[in-house]
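[INFO] parsing input record for Proteasome subunit beta
[DEBUG] input buffer:
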Amino acid sequence: MSILEYNGGAVVAMLGKNCVAVASDLRYGIKNTTVGCQMRKAYPIHQKCLLGMAGLATDVQTFLEKMKFRVNMYKLREDRDIKPSSFGNMVSSALYENRFGPMFLEPVIAGLEGDDNTPFISSTDLIGAQCFTDNFVVVGTASEALYGMCESLWKPEMEPEDLFEVISQCLMASVDRDCNSGWGGIVYILTPDKLITKELKGRQD
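[DEBUG] output buffer:
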């Protein structure tokens, strides 16, 4: 078993029309043993940026605190919120700094950029190599099933309601096919006006 699969988990980010969404499951496990079912793997960084992470739970928590510190320092220096693309570079750089003893996590960055709220998503591997896309990114133990579901259901220019429906269906159908993730989910939908948070109920077996 890869150390990235030790705690399980699934995260997916999708682009819509002037909106983005990030969804994750809520299971926290140790291999095949479920320990808890309230562990979110997606986090708001500020009003227009989200960070999702799958991988080793201790590294995820440590890295999240590091990123919060760096984002706060950026805001103090620049007197503005960091752009999602710049935050993606910050995440990539922080992971590459530890390349000889890497943090075992896979981040997903999603947000809205500039005055025109251009949607942005990207992901990196555990040493910070970035992947940019204009549709969706997936990470975690359920990523194979997520790829198939997202390719089947995603379509361009979705409104926030449609985006929520599609990303929810993709997540819930995929985690049912992976014993290391599931137990419900949480979805963040980011629009130019607000951040919407919704929880999903899933199978509890």
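[INFO] The longest strand covers residues 105-113.
[INFO] shutting down worker
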